[in-house]
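USER: My hope is that you can spare some time for a protein that puzzles me. I am handing you a single protein, as its sequence and its fold in token form. Walk me, if you will, through where the backbone shape changes along the chain. The protein I mean follows directly.
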Amino acid sequence: MRIELAQIRPYLGDIPRNLEKHVEVVETSSADCVVFPELSLTGYVLRDLVYELYRESQKAVERLAEASGKRCVVAGTLREVRRGVIRNSAAVIIDGSVDYVYKFYLPTYGLFEERRYFQRGDPARDLKVFSYRGWSFGVMICEDAWHPEPAEALALMGADLIIVPAASPMRRLSKDLAIKDNWEALLKAHSLMNAVWTVFVNTVGSQEEEYFWGGSMVVSPLGDVRLRLKLFEEDRGVYEISEGELLRARYFSSFRDHIAEFHKVLWDLH
């Protein structure tokens, strides 16, 4: 399956402009599946704009689905799950049909304020694995990748590929861009421990006082970075994931050996 990483700059609150960019990318893509960043249709640093934009963002998803044809598209959006309750969401469009994945871990530390505006997803109901062109995949949104449980659960549910839409801002500027190195370490760990392909698509550009660094990448089940997109600018790249590397990783991995008793220990320690 050929996957396009669409590292775009969303314009904060400008859904028509962002939707136009999404449609342009999808209609010109040569890939089977196109992946956009977290909250790509709305922008990330929304604050109270959440309450003004969620209805329009849901309509934008419908228009994007119409333009998607037979492709798979993953795009970041807002969704009202019941009256007045909004979630940070990824729309998963397959053959024109739409489903949603919700963010579980909502960062509210440092510059992040997500729990002020969003309700987190419920793992018991909202963990999902999708099928497309012979591949099974799951989606986890940004902060979910900084915790082990979502990726492990998706892998045990059958995912061969985990897609990670993100809006990761720069935290400090250094010669080596530490946040990029941290993300690469996380993605390699998820791929290696769970024997899955991992596709990370990050936002780029400025929004309010934050600046997003891009650096989207594809990591193989063997822990190798196979594709890197540019830093600090919009970029697109296509990579074809292979079954052979997935099989090699799984033949020599204990990812399937899950000891559930650890969760009882962790629960008691919580």
Remarks:
- The chain has a mean pLDDT of 96.
